[in-house]
Specification:
The protein is an alpha+beta fold. It has two domains: 21-288, no CATH class; 305-475, PknH-like extracellular domain (Protein Transport Mog1p, Chain A), CATH 3.40.1000. 50% of the residues lie in helices and 13% in strands. The chain has 18 helices and eleven strands. Strands 4, 5, 6, 7, 8, 9, 10 and 11 form an eight-stranded mixed beta sheet that branches. A three-stranded mixed beta sheet has the order 1-3-2. A hairpin with a 2-residue loop joins β10 and β11 (442-449). α3 (56-74) packs across α9 and α4 (89-107) packs across α5. The radius of gyration is 22 Å and the shape is globular. The two termini are 33 Å apart.
């Protein structure tokens, strides 16, 4: 389920290099990068009286002050203002367990119940730890956690930031989500979605719309100076390639805010330029596919088919008996996040992407995991270009300097090729290996973290998935 400021769709399962379960065992630096996605920041003026003294009555008064600007920015009015309360992280964790349950349970279907519950609790606790505010679909309430504002700003080194402006931006963002619920029934729509790709599509629009509208409201209230700092925070850390504890294992997760919030806002802004506020609501209500949204050129592209059947057999051959195994379709949004520095090239290749799936297995401790992505493309040329783009995205980052993982030839497969990138394990970072197998128009990406596998086992895994993808080709 999506969440609000931020309501980035908190990962509901693990994934390749890296995705979800890796977040469970990241260093403090990586955890901070997750927080960066959700923490809005305003002008560098130390004004925190409201943050220090906010109670339910003052929050109601604050909403009354902010509500007209939010309504004007959105082009819609509240039939009834949402209930607002000062809350705490314990309540947000409970809320997130409810909202994330459909996705988590769908992805981990077939596992023992206690393992599914463990995975759900980890996701909910992690996501709640980065929330300053939350619109709750279940109750229609806006919850705000003011004591965390100054704490989080200090963690980010923004000691002089205007904490009261941060709080106002948090509330405005959540009020936009409340209007979204009123106008398009956002909560019910999310509740019906078990397919992660569909969740990501809707979330991209919901968060982009909230960013776009809350920025318009901020400018109307004379808080335009908060926009640039907020966007900088959404972009997250900028030094991850040079941070030993992050490396290949964690560097792509930090780009979620830039893709979901800021790219989403750009998508909504294009709609606004075409047809004003009504066009933004039509876009949110319609819910275009991830691929079409990310491309942004109006070109019709083929629907990406769910190829989960191609990875189903991996449970027995590539996971330990006590591991928690998940299977589902793969999200285009997540691919852009994971390969952020090659995002434009990757998005263009989406036109040739025909099917996809992911498989993830987490050990009893989430410090060890294995992930497999399966891709089917329209032709061999598209598959080859895809491997090249992903390899370049993993091995190079034009914005960084320092030691970087490089690709080399991987183990051979019949009639195909493989490239490999590795990060050596040390006391400060996990051991991660990424392999990309290609045969014909199909690609299999295998990633392991603290879960070493012999090349023979990796080849058997890839061969199994490639054969299933080829069978799907024959059935077309």
């Amino acid at each position: 389920m999506a969440q609000t400021i931020g309501r980035a769709p908190i990962p509901v399962h693990g994934g390749a290099a890296p995705r979800y379960a890796p977040a469970m065992n990241r260093s403090k630096g990586v955890l901070l990068s997750l927080l960066l996605v959700w923490l809005p920041v305003a002008r560098a003026v130390a004004q925190d009286e409201l943050v220090r003294s906010l109670d339910d009555d003052k929050l109601v008064a604050l909403v009354a002050k902010l509500r007209p600007a939010v309504e004007q920015a959105c082009g819609r009015t509240f039939a009834k203002a949402p209930q607002v309360y000062v809350s705490d992280q314990g309540e947000l964790k409970r809320v997130m367990r409810v909202e994330l349950a459909p996705q988590v349970e769908a992805f981990y279907r077939g596992n023992p119940r206690n393992r599914i519950q463990k995975a759900l609790q980890m996701r909910a606790d992690l996501s709640a730890s980065g929330l300053l505010g939350k619109f709750v679909f279940e109750s229609g309430e806006v919850l705000v956690v003011p004591p965390l504002v100054k704490t989080m700003l200090d963690l980010l080194g923004m000691h002089d930031a205007d904490a009261d402006a941060v709080l106002q931006l948090v509330v405005m963002h959540e009020l936009v989500h409340a209007l979204q619920e009123q106008e398009v029934g956002l909560g019910a729509r999310f509740a019906k979605l078990e397919n992660l790709a569909a969740v990501e599509s809707l979330n991209l629009l919901a968060e982009g719309h909230a960013v776009f509208c809350s920025e318009r409201a901020a400018r109307a209230l004379g808080l335009g100076g908060a926009v640039a700092p907020v966007r900088a925070i959404f972009r997250g850390r900028t030094d991850s390639f040079d941070t030993v504890a992050v490396g290949l294992h964690g560097r792509r997760s930090e780009r979620r805010g830039e893709v979901v919030y800021l790219r989403g806002a750009a998508i909504v802004e294009r709609a606004f330029e075409r047809g004003g506020v009504d066009a933004t609501w039509e876009l949110l209500a319609g819910g275009a596919s991830c691929v079409e949204l990310l491309r942004g050129d109006g070109e019709q592209v083929a629907q990406v088919e769910d190829a989960s059947a191609s990875v189903a057999a991996l449970r027995e051959q590539f996971a330990g008996k006590t591991w928690t195994v998940g299977v589902g379709p793969i999200s285009p949004v997540q691919l852009v996040i994971e390969n952020f520095h090659m995002r434009d090239s990757l998005v263009q290749l989406f036109a040739g992407w025909r099917r996809g799936a992911e498989w993830f297995a987490m050990a009893p401790t989430p410090a060890a995991w294995r992930a497999v992505y399966a891709f089917g493309f329209a032709d061999e040329q598209a598959a080859t270009r895809f491997v090249g783009v992903v390899a370049a995205g993993v091995s190079r980052d034009p914005e960084k300097t320092g030691e970087r993982p490089e690709f080399a030839d991987g183990p051979a497969i019949d009639g195909g090729a493989c490239v490999r990138a590795s990060q050596e394990r040390s006391w400060t970072q996990p051991g991660v290996e990424v392999l990309l197998f290609r045969r014909g128009a199909n690609v299999v990406q295998v990633t392991t973290c603290n879960a070493d596998a012999e090349d023979e086992e990796l080849v058997r895994c890839a061969e199994s998935v490639l054969k299933e993808l080829e069978r799907l080709d024959d059935d077309r």
